[in-house]
Amino acid sequence: MDGFSFHATECHASVHNHYGGHVLSGVQSTQNRRGRRLIQLYVGLALYGASSALLVESGLGLEPWNVLHQGLAELTGLTIGVVSIIVGATVLLLWIPLRQRPGLGTVSNVFVVGIAMDGTLALVPGAHTLSVRVPLLAAGIVLNGAATGLYIAAGFGPGPRDGLMTGLHRRTGRSIRLVRTVIEVAVVATGFALGGTVGVGTVVYAVAIGPLAQLFLRLFAPSGASGGSTVVAEGPPPRAILRR
């Protein structure tokens, strides 16, 4: 009996080590993946703010929402980054009647992008010649696409402005394309009237950002994601989000 008891205990320890080791390894792997996703989220948001600052410095035209932010900054005397934070927080409040559920990425988007934008503007010297402004514009658009792919692929929820678009789509039954167009035309028109910069850069951004974001989303999506669709499971469908 003593020999049998020893053998049984030994087998139990072996089984426990085998399955317990797998469980522990799985937990550690999950924690590591979440850690990488968090880094990816905040790097993406910081680069998004930096890319927007490059577009501001180019003086050749901004993406639609930053046309509004710049116009409000001219009106209020606040920095464009601070205005971006205020507008983002206000848009987030509009999620309440739309019954949208923000994620960590949504709330982080409000603050990190604006802070990174002001920080980059403080560091990058003003550009006065086209030979400098055009490369700034190109770098800003490409970097914006990469940043968009990074933070969306992290899967922590869409930005507040994306959520407004998809929330209105669900509430009104109108197409994403129509809702997006109406919102961005209103945003650009208001921003331009307040002194925001609209130019060739605005047009180039509108044409290029979709393909660039799609390219970088596929590049940065987790290897286990099927077709890149599962990386945004906590937010609206990827097709809707990519049309930021």
Supply the key terms.
77% helix, mainly alpha, globular, 10 helices, 244 residues
Descriptive report:
Helix content is about 75%, strand content about 0%. The chain is mainly alpha-helical and about 240 residues long. The longest helix has about 55 residues, at about 1-60. The protein is globular, with a radius of gyration of 23 Å. Mean pLDDT is about 85; it is low at about 5-10 and about 225-244.
Give me the secondary-structure category: mainly alpha
Helix run count: 10
From N to C, what is the helix and strand string?
HHHHHHHHHH
What is the distance, rounded to the nearest whole angstrom, between the alpha carbons of the first and last residues? 71 Å
Mean pLDDT: 84
Proportion in β-strands: under 5%
List low-pLDDT spans. Answer: 3-9, 226-244
Choose one word for the global shape.
globular
Helicity range of the residues? Answer: over 70%
What's the total count of β strands? 0
Integer-rounded radius of gyration: 23 Å
Main sheet summary: none
Short account of what is shown:
By secondary structure, the protein is an all-alpha fold. The protein has helices at residues 2-58, 64-76, 80-93, 95-98, 104-123, 130-153, 160-172, 176-193, 200-220, 238-241. The longest helix is centred in the N-terminal third of the chain and has 57 residues, at 2-58.
